[in-house]
Amino acid sequence: MTQLEQEIQDPTSLAVAAASRGCPVYRADPYPVYRQLRETAPVSRLTPPHGVETYLITRYEDAKAALADPRISKDMYAAIDAYHTIFGDSSIALDDNMLFSDPPKHTRLRRIVNRAFTPRRIEVLRPRIQEITDTLLDNCAADEVVDLLPAFAFPLPLKVICELIGVPEEERDDVQEWCSVVARTGFSKGDKDRLADAESTLHRYFQELIARKRKNASDDLLSDLIRTQDEQGSLTDGELVSTLWILLFAGHKTTAYLIGNAVYNLLTHRDQLQRITTSPELLPNAIEEIIRFDGSVENATFRHALEDITIAGTLIPKGSLVQIAITSANRDPERFEAPDDFDVTRQGVQSNHLGFGTGPHYCLGAPLARMEMQLALTSLFDRFPRIDLAESPKETEWLTVPFPAFRGLKRLPVTLNAH
Ligand code: HEM
């Protein structure tokens, strides 16, 4: 029997193959595959294109425990061979940050950023986020088809995070371009060369921006971080550059894809949209439900096993990569009743979903992301109450990447008639 025949006979093998390879049908609706894996292989060995031995965790309780398990490390430098295979040498300089470290380094780096990333600083941004949102919507033509991703969902969080960090307005397009190349990791030689070029360009840009801010400090997060570095010496130059990168990267695509997923799911579940437009006080809960139901971070970032670990009866050998399928955990019927229903009134969703992670690496930007989502959705649906999808859901294309970090749309064409 060929391997393919075996896979077709065995739905679990088929599910593992689909999860490993990112085929388009699976990307359009990965949830049946995840259901199959939760039921039959909750910790499954994948065969990803990068070739490094990888285990995927799909059940809620296992995922929650794994995200906070000190035996499952985030320090990718300690797994340097795997790291080289997946990302190449050029990424190392940009990944010297909290997301790629364990305590005590993680605690030190996160505390420094947390001190600058205060609720006050985020609240101060509110009118500016509203202004950015309004300007982007002003530029959307009401009488023709608009792809909402490039017109609205992407520029909004990028402009906000640049504003927060202190990237000057006229430099933001370049920064966006370099970031999107870096985020598009591929495995061909050409991909790796393009990645290396963009990474070194970003690295040089950040070094130069830091030098400028050091001369002319202003009221932004980067100037605060430089002050902390100069006064306390607790942040190396490399860590500072890399911290800027993680803020920019983590604060941008995650929110952009979530805006897309939110609009798409609300337009395909009109009853739920009506509930939030008639009762706007439901919106914060609706946003949490969207993160649970179709969140933008499909898998947590790479981890690796520091020792042999057994989860749900499966041995994960020391040194293996561990991927945690957040979007699968968030559809686990053991945790959420009727998990495949999108219900903006669902009780207790905010404190239970894993869409922002959990444990030491819980999303630092969650309060900012929530504020951006609220302003974006309120403004969009207020301004364009007759907004509709411009193509049928059957034609919708989702990102196809070999080991998906993000769940998001390739495009979101809509018609925006105001009346
Ligand atoms: C809806 C939007 C967002 C989602 C769904 C999201 C999701 C996540 C998740 C799941 C993690 C944990 C990753 C892991 O454990 O492997 C994380 C970490 C992180 N996020 Fe977010 N995020 C969002 C927006 C933001 C924003 C706006 C920022 C910054 C301005 C941000 C900054 C970070 C940082 C710095 C970390 C690393 C924290 C650490 O390692 O201690 N995120 N995010």
UniProtKB/TrEMBL annotation:
Sorted alphabetically, the keyword list is: Heme, Iron, Metal-binding, Monooxygenase, Oxidoreductase
Q: InterPro entries per the record?
A: Cyt_P450 (IPR001128), Cyt_P450_B (IPR002397), Cyt_P450_CS (IPR017972), Cyt_P450_sf (IPR036396)
Q: Does the keyword Metal-binding apply?
A: yes
Which GO-annotated molecular functions does the record name? heme binding; iron ion binding; monooxygenase activity; oxidoreductase activity, acting on paired donors, with incorporation or reduction of molecular oxygen
The reply to whether Mitochondrion figures as a keyword in the UniProt entry is no
A Pfam family name for this chain? p450
Cite the Gene3D superfamilies for this sequence: Cytochrome P450
Query: What's the family?
Result: Belongs to the cytochrome P450 family.
Name of this protein: Cytochrome P450
Organism name: Streptomyces fagopyri
